[in-house]
Amino acid sequence: MVPPLSTRLTTQRLVLRPPRTGDIGELRRLLRHNQAHLNPWNPAPRPGEDPTSITEVSNTVLRHRREWKSGRSFSFMLALLTDPGRLIGKIALNGIMRGAMHGAYLGYWMDVDHQNGGLCTEGISAVLDFAFGPARLHRVQAAIMPHNPRSLRVIEKLGFRREGYAERYLQIAGKWEDHILFARTREEHPVPDGSRHDNAVA
Ligand SMILES: CC(C)(COP(=O)(O)OP(=O)(O)OC[C@H]1O[C@@H](n2cnc3c(N)ncnc32)[C@H](O)[C@@H]1OP(=O)(O)O)[C@@H](O)C(=O)NCCC(=O)NCCS
């Protein structure tokens, strides 16, 4: 069973929840503010496409909600508990595979003005509890470019295990980039009491 779209995770400082249509204006502001910060780490948009246009942001929100409902991905918007209306980042479990895998790819970014305060690490930790708890995943994978020290530090702090080095793995900002591959499995991540779920292969 897929966790409901009403899912809401809280940490000491953050609230994490799926995007909703009421977020479109705020998400657009956040993406526009962070364009220069995020462009080096994202796939380049298609020619003529503006990922911060109302149409694209609306499509993104609707796609995230569709994919959540069908269990294909779980995307969380982040906000501070003290200011829940202002979005500050996103953490997602993408490309969910069931069957013999029960795995997902982790993606994340944080508002440029909210970096280096441990917020992304705090948010991912809660998303991992969700992944290995209600989402019944067994493996969460991350791929990071060798020249992204902040992201490498986040994944190190979270205790991910390095699994390999993939040459020309993803096309980022128009260039096929090498990535270091990391993973964490259910056995390595004790799930807090109360969110235990059977993640046996289905
Ligand atoms: C990567 C990113 C999500 C981290 O968010 P964040 O909220 O700053 O993360 P945290 O504060 O939890 O941790 C960042 C760590 O990197 C460290 N750091 C910052 N700049 C660094 C640098 N140049 N070299 C090494 N470490 C650095 C910080 O000191 C902190 O470590 P610490 O807690 O031990 O002091 C954010 O920088 C970002 O959005 N980057 C652009 C998008 C991106 O790279 N996404 C990931 C793609 S794989």
Task: Provide an overview of this structure.
This protein is an alpha+beta fold and 202 residues long. It has a domain at 9-137: 3-Layer(aba) Sandwich (Aminopeptidase). It contains 5 helices and 8 strands. The chain has helices at 24-33, 35-38, 54-69, 119-132, 149-157, and strands spanning 9-10, 14-17, 74-80, 83-97, 103-110, 139-144, 161-172, 175-185. The chain has an 8-stranded mixed sheet with strand order 1-2-3-4-5-6-8-7, sandwiched between helices. Helix 4 (119-132) links the parallel strand 5 (103-110) and strand 6 (139-144). The longest helix is centred in the N-terminal third of the chain and has 16 residues, at 54-69. The radius of gyration is 16 Å and the shape is globular. The model is unreliable at 196-202 (pLDDT under 50). Coenzyme A is lined by residues 38, 41, 108-110, 115-121, 144, 148-151, 153-154.
How would you describe this structure in keywords?
disordered C terminus; 26% helix; alpha+beta; single chain; 5 helices; 8-stranded mixed beta sheet; 202 residues; binds coenzyme A; Aminopeptidase
Reading the helices and strands in chain order gives: EEHHHEEEHEHEE
The ligands found in this model are: coenzyme A
CATH architecture tag of one domain: 3-Layer(aba) Sandwich
What is the mean predicted local confidence, pLDDT?
95
Rg, alpha carbons: 16 Å
CATH superfamily of one domain: Gcn5-related N-acetyltransferase (GNAT)
Termini distance?
11 Å
**CATH class category label of one domain:** Alpha Beta
State the strand order across the main sheet: 1-2-3-4-5-6-8-7
- Give me the number of helical elements: 5
- Structural class computed from helices and strand pairing: alpha+beta
- Kindly identify the CATH topology of one domain: Aminopeptidase
How much helical structure, as a percent, in the residues? 25-40%
How many distinct beta strands? Answer: 8
Largest sheet: 8 strands, mixed
Shape: globular
What is the strand content?
A: 25-35%
In the predicted model, the low-confidence regions spanning at least 5 consecutive residues are: 196-202
